[in-house]
């Protein structure tokens, strides 16, 4: 199964023997990304609130008359973070429903592939998406292993099955690595750039097809490895395979 543009009309893509309205796939990709970004923001704010709670407790224990301003500043920041976290949680519920609406508009044939792929919690650790994350400077370009940990239920803070994937501008680990959080105007520009690559054929046709294949196409199994030999680091990272790999 592979997506390609219809030769007759670029408003449609062909998958197997089925012609699909391109906008249906676009809506799913944008909804997936929006939920992923917001989920990572929620996780980042949760960690920030926890850190501020601990800081406030330490400052209160060591409170000195001349340092009351520091405690009040931390308390104000904590209240602000809790409010932002609450807003993110509400918005996450909306984005999750938006993803449901987008996927419900898929044809049964395409929806089957989408659902089957999502049954594997490690679906987004396919080689192409790992490489894409690495190219964007995400956690897959480092040794932290954050993206792989998002597959694991016990290591997933939010316990949400949807909204998992590779790094966005809201990734807590990436923010820590950079040493700063992008200003909101920069985040908005990055969102618009991503939308342009996915939504408009002239500016992002190649990327759209790649992304559609990565988000919908089944994982290809790799050749069985020799059980007497340890698995390579590449195998341990990429697991079951990739979209572009030829079947043996």
TrEMBL record:
Q: Which superkingdom does the taxonomy of this entry point to?
A: Eukaryota
Q: Region entry Disordered: which residue ranges?
A: 224-248
Q: What is this protein called?
A: Pc22g04500 protein
């Amino acid at each position: 199964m592979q997506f390609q543009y219809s030769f007759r009309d670029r408003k449609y893509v062909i998958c197997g023997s089925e012609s699909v309205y391109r906008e249906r796939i676009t809506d799913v990709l944008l909804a997936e990304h929006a939920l992923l970004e917001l989920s990572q923001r929620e996780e980042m704010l949760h960690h920030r609130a926890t850190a501020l709670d601990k800081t406030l407790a330490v400052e209160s224990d060591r409170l000195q008359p001349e340092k009351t301003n520091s405690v009040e500043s931390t308390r104000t920041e904590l209240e602000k973070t809790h409010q932002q976290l609450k807003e993110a949680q509400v918005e996450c519920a909306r984005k999750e429903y938006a993803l449901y609406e987008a996927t419900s508009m898929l044809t049964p044939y395409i929806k089957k592939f989408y659902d089957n792929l999502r049954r594997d919690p490690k679906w987004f650790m396919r080689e192409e998406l790992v490489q894409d994350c690495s190219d964007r400077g995400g956690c897959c370009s480092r040794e932290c292993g954050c993206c792989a940990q998002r597959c694991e239920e016990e290591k997933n803070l939010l316990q949400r099955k949807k909204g998992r994937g590779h790094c966005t501008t809201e990734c807590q680990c990436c923010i820590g690595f950079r040493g700063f959080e992008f200003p909101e105007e920069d985040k908005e520009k990055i969102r618009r750039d991503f939308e342009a690559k996915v939504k408009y054929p002239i500016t992002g046709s190649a990327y759209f097809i790649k992304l559609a294949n990565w988000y919908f196409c089944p994982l290809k199994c790799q050749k069985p490895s020799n059980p007497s030999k340890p698995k390579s680091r590449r195998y341990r990272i990429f697991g079951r395979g990739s979209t572009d790999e030829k079947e043996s």
